[in-house]
Amino acid sequence: MRNSNLDIHPVTGMIGAEILGIDLGADHPDSVYAEIRNALNEHGVIFFRDQTLPTDKYVEFGQKFGTLIASKFIPTLPDYPLVAEIRKEADQDRNVGGAWHTDNPYREIPPMGTILYAQEIPDHGGDTCFINMGAAYDALSDGLKKTLGQLRGVHSNAQVYGKLARADKRGNPSMINLDQAAQEVTHPVVVTHPESGRKVLFVSPSYTPRFEGWTEEESRPLLQFLFDHVKRPEFACRFRWQPGSIAFWDDRQTLHYAVNDYTGTRRIMHRLMVQGLGPLG
Ligand code: SIN
Question: If you compute the radius of gyration of the chain from its CA atoms, what whole number of angstroms results?
Fold first, then answer.
C-alpha cells in the first residue's frame, strides 16, 4: 500500500484487504484514520480481526469517518440509536441482506460506508460477499459505458422492505417501520466516486427496479445483464467472520451479500452507517 504505515494485505486481485495489528479501540492520531480511509477507497472493503471494542468505542471509531446515520428498518440497540443490531435467531429462516445490494441507496445522499462488527457468529457459514463495482464498470464495452453514462437508476426501498411488510412474518428477522417503505430516489447509473474519482456502476438487484423514464419491463433486460455481469467471481471476495471481526465497506463502490446458510444457529452483528459526502454524481 502506498504511503501507509498500516499493515495491509489485499485478499484478492480486485477487492478487499485485511488490515492487521491495529486495535481500533485505542486512540490513534488523525493520520491513522486518514490511512484507513485511503485503504477503504483503494480496496472497497477492509477487514480487521480480533477487535474488543465496547459499544461506545465502536461508535467513536465510526465517527472518525463522518456523521453516523440511524437505520430506519433494522432495530437499534436500546442505548445506542446509531447502532443497528442485525440478529438472526436459530429458528428464523430469512436473513437481512441476503441478496446483492448496497446499503440505503434510496436516500438522497447514500451512505459512504457501513461498518459491521461480529458479536455472535455461527461456527461455519454466515459469510459476507462483496463485489467491486468499479472493476465491473471497467470490464464493460465503450459502447455500453456510453449508454449507461446517460441513464439514472431509480432506487426504491419498497422492493425490499415493502415486500417484507406484506409477507408472512414467521421466519423473518425482526424489522421496524416497514409501513414506511415507500422511498424512491434516482442516482446516475455510472457514478464518479467522490474520493478516488473512479467510475463505478451504481445499481443493485435489491433496490433498482428500473431506469428513470423507463418502465420496469423496458429496464429489466439491461438491468439483468448488469446484475449478471457484476457477479463474475473476478470482481468479488468472500469474508469469513471470526469472533471480533470488523468489516468496513464503501457503499459507493461495492455491493455485498449476506450468505444465508446457517439456519439453526444464531448470528448477531452490530452495524454503523456513515453519511455520504453529498449527492452522487
Ligand atoms: C447488511 O446487508 O448490511 C448485513 C450484511 C451481513 O450481515 O453480513
Answer: 18
Give me the CATH number covering residue 18.
3.60.130.10
Residue nearest to atom 1 of ligand 1 (CA): 97
Q: How far apart are CA 81 and CA 270, in angstroms?
A: 12
- Please work out, in degrees rounded to the nearest 5, the angle formed at the alpha carbon of residue 51 by the alpha carbons of 273 and 246: 35
| Catalytic residue list | 101, 103, 256, 271
Q: What is the Cα–Cα distance from 212 to 273, expressed in whole angstroms?
A: 26
pLDDT in tens, the chain (281 residues): 455 789 999 999 999 999 999 999 999 999 999 999 999 999 999 999 999 999 999 999 999 999 999 988 899 999 999 999 999 999 999 899 999 999 999 999 999 999 999 999 999 999 999 999 999 999 999 999 999 999 999 999 877 766 665 666 666 767 777 777 678 899 999 999 999 999 999 999 999 999 999 999 999 999 999 999 999 999 999 999 999 999 999 999 999 999 999 999 999 999 999 999 999 99
38 SS3 class: helix
Q: Identify the domain containing residue 244 by its residue range.
A: 7-274
Residues in the ligand 1 pocket, defined by CB under 6 Å: 86, 96-97, 103, 114, 116, 128, 256, 258, 269, 271
Measured by CA distance, the residue closest to atom 7 of ligand 1 is 258
CA of 60 to the centre of ligand 1 (A): 21
The number of the ligand 1 atom at minimal distance from the alpha carbon of 258 is: 8
Q: Answer whether residue 1 is part of any domain.
A: no
Residue 46's CB is within 10 A of a number of other CB atoms, namely 25
Atom of ligand 1 nearest to the CA of 97: 2
Q: How many domains does the chain have?
A: 1
Cell of 247: 468489516
Choosing from 96, 114, 115, 204 the residue with most ligand 1 atoms within 8 A of its CB, the one to mutate for a pocket test is 96
Is 280 domain-assigned?
Answer: no
